[in-house]
Amino acid sequence: MSTQAAARQGAARGAENKRKRVVKRVRRDGEWKRVVKINRWRTCARRATAPVAPAPVVTPPAPAPEPRPEPEDPSIPRLGVKAEEWSYTLSRPEVPAGEVIVELNNMGEDPHNLNLQLQDGSGPEASIPVTGPSGQSKARFALPAGTYRMWCSLDEHETKGMSATLVVAAG
Ligand SMILES: [Cu+2]
């Protein structure tokens, strides 16, 4: 079969299956070789109807859920502590023994923290971490009855006046 015949036959077959069979004779390393290539049969019509791959739908990752504040039991007594330079102001001088929610409100211009411990130093220290200006931090403590010392542990804040006394009364 001649090269032309093969090409014709290939073209005919290509028309059926949308492939074009190309037969070439090439000289390689001094020898003639028969090379058959199968090409995709491309036409404008085919291109027009070629399915367009849909753009991948990019779903933005769902935002991490905000940590929801633990619902507070309204029966738990609360103590507000206003911090500023250089003092603490307590919303009440006394709370009942047991669970208490302590809220540190920094109304000053510097960061402050809050620490409390039985005045005789017998119990553990409870603390609310450093809170920036206009910040508010809350913590829930279980306080046995006694008289507590409250202080800010940042450099010299206590000696400048950031200390207070809290009475935790036996129920
Ligand atoms: Cu302070």
Global structural class: mainly beta
What assembly state would you assign to the polypeptide chains in this entry? single chain
- Briefly note the CATH topology name of the largest domain: Immunoglobulin-like
SSE order in H/E notation? HEEHEEEEEEEEE
CATH architecture of the largest domain: Sandwich
| Strand portion | over 45%
- Tally of separate helices: 2
Question: Topology of this protein?
Answer:
Layout: H1 3-17, E1 19-28, E2 31-40, H2 44-49, E3 78-84, E4 87-90, E5 94-96, E6 98-106, E7 112-118, E8 126-131, E9 136-143, E10 146-151, E11 163-169
Parallel strand pairs: 3-6, 5-11
Antiparallel strand pairs: 1-2, 3-4, 6-9, 7-8, 7-10, 10-11
Summarize the structure.
The chain has 171 residues and is mainly beta. The protein has helices at residues 3-17, 44-49, and strands at 19-28, 31-40, 78-84, 87-90, 94-96, 98-106, 112-118, 126-131, 136-143, 146-151, 163-169.
